[in-house]
């Protein structure tokens, strides 16, 4: 297989409501994917009506940002146990992963399962801790 040094595929591993879609939204806005005068809502990646209604990602989706001439394909994966087959499929295509952990709830069992799977596949996670500004954050733990 040919390996391209100018493309990276990154999966985001996190439990439902731990902020995957919000993180991707912020990455897209920060990387100036949108024009300054363009009005962009929240949950950019969740276009499916059921996903918007439930506030969860059901089907994996991808988008991309460019950083220092490297195209980074970001894969927003489902965070619910019912969609583990979809998560495994995504991980098999990834070069690396972001492990997104909610500082209030901590790592959940499904997240730990997906992390073990990712590490077994040779992925090296970058840990991102979300919701640290919340009053009931458990950062000391």
Automatic annotation (TrEMBL):
Instruction: Tell me the Pfam families matching this sequence.
Output: GTP_EFTU
| Classification via InterPro entries | G_TR_CS, P-loop_NTPase, Small_GTP-bd, T_Tr_GTP-bd_dom
Can you give the residue ranges of the Tr-type G domain?
A: 5-141
An annotated GO cellular component? cytosol
Q: Where is the signal peptide?
A: none
GO MF terms here are:
GTP binding; GTPase activity
Q: Which PANTHER family match?
A: TR-TYPE G DOMAIN-CONTAINING PROTEIN, TRANSLATION ELONGATION FACTOR-RELATED
What is this protein identified as?
Answer: Tr-type G domain-containing protein
Source organism of the structure:
marine sediment metagenome
